[in-house]
Design goal:
Length: about 350
């Protein structure tokens, strides 16, 4: 059985992490899975062990990114594989040209939050989603993601299987807090609040910044991820450290150095890597309904846009830090990369009979 895992996202992104982690784990388990990496100007990468790159031969500056996944690459996917796995809904059109194809559905964020995405991307995605009928099976990253997709009318329920992405259990483990802070050059005596992710609007970073002003003790906010000009004015007077381009091998140090991980995002398709990785490192975690999947191991605050509610939650968790840390570790055990790989391979076999 030869499987082609088709991906066009860099491993620093959530979709890219999903594809690269799954590819590496399946190969470690001895399965003949190759990655076909679709490279355009925006997502260049080094050579891939156990895969190959398909390089876009032209550059269209105004809409290159959308053009590549929608029009250029799908008909150019090479044949000769027994099964194709499109790593996200953005590559759904692969199913029109290569069969059988399994597609992983992440979420409908571009359609639900149009202000955060280019017009051309949204229109291309709307057209592409109509091709779900071409896919042999669909993997949804959560039950919420499945229900949302089925309710939208783009896919039939009996074609969708929920397989939660998992954290790399060989990497994400608790590190003694003092050791982690020393490795990052962070003050041992600070109360550190950690946030990992971008600052696009649905990530709800302004609420976190406003909530910090309500906390006692002048905590330090450590942010790992891209920045936006909109949040800069809200940081004035706060202690904030920014990091970007952090290699994944260093991320357990950031999680383990924190007293508390806060992820106030209002929408994630009910799954996100950062809170799961934080829990796996034994860090108390605060979420909104946007990632309800981890309900047993985290503190949930509501409403998501309320700085007062978030501040009250942070104070409550910090008072019982050890209890919430134990809850987080226990919850993370059910979402490992190894379990994800086993379930995904079982689905491949089911599709191939």
């Amino acid at each position: 059985m030869r499987v082609a895992l088709v991906n066009n996202f860099h491993p620093f992104t959530g979709i890219g992490k999903y594809a690269f982690n799954l590819h590496a784990r399946l190969r470690t388990m001895g399965y003949p899975v190759e990655m076909l990496y679709l490279e355009s100007k925006e997502n260049r990468i080094e050579e891939i062990e156990g895969g190959r790159k398909l390089v876009q031969g032209l550059n269209l500056p105004l809409f290159n990114k959308t053009f590549s996944w929608y029009s250029y690459f799908p008909p150019r996917i090479p044949g000769g594989y027994d099964l194709y796995h499109a790593s996200s809904h953005y590559l759904l059109r692969v199913a029109k040209y290569r069969k059988p194809t399994v597609v992983t559905h992440m979420d409908l964020a571009p359609l639900l939050y149009p202000q955060d995405y280019p017009y051309l991307l949204r229109k291309a995605l709307e057209r592409s989603l109509k091709d779900y009928g071409e896919a042999e099976r669909i993997i949804a990253i959560s039950q919420g993601s499945k229900e949302e997709l089925v309710a939208s009318g783009y896919a039939d329920e009996d074609k969708v299987t929920v397989i939660h992405p998992g954290y790399d259990e060989t990497l994400y483990r608790p590190i003694p807090r003092g050791e982690a802070r020393a490795a990052l050059g962070l003050d041992q005596g600070e109360t550190i609040i950690l946030h990992v992710g971008s600052e696009e609007r649905r990530k709800n970073v302004p609420t976190l910044l406003k909530a910090l002003r309500l906390l006692k003790g002048d905590p330090l906010l450590v942010r790992v991820g891209t920045r936006s000009p909109e949040c800069a004015p809200l940081e004035k007077g706060l202690k904030v450290l920014h990091f970007s381009g952090v290699e994944e091998g260093r991320m357990p140090f950031f999680y383990s150095a924190a007293d508390l991980f806060v992820f106030p995002s209002t929408y994630e398709g009910n799954f996100a890597y950062p809170p799961l990785e934080a829990m796996a490192c034994g860090v108390p975690t605060i979420l909104t309904e946007g990632v309800r999947l981890f309900s047993k191991g985290c503190y949930f605050y509501t409403p998501p846009e309320s700085p007062e509610a978030l501040a009250a939650g942070m104070e409550a968790v910090l008072r019982e830090r050890e209890r919430y840390a134990a809850m987080a570790l226990e919850e993370a055990k059910g979402y490992t990369l190894g379990e994800e790989a086993v379930k995904t391979m079982a689905l491949y076999r089911e599709v191939l009979g």
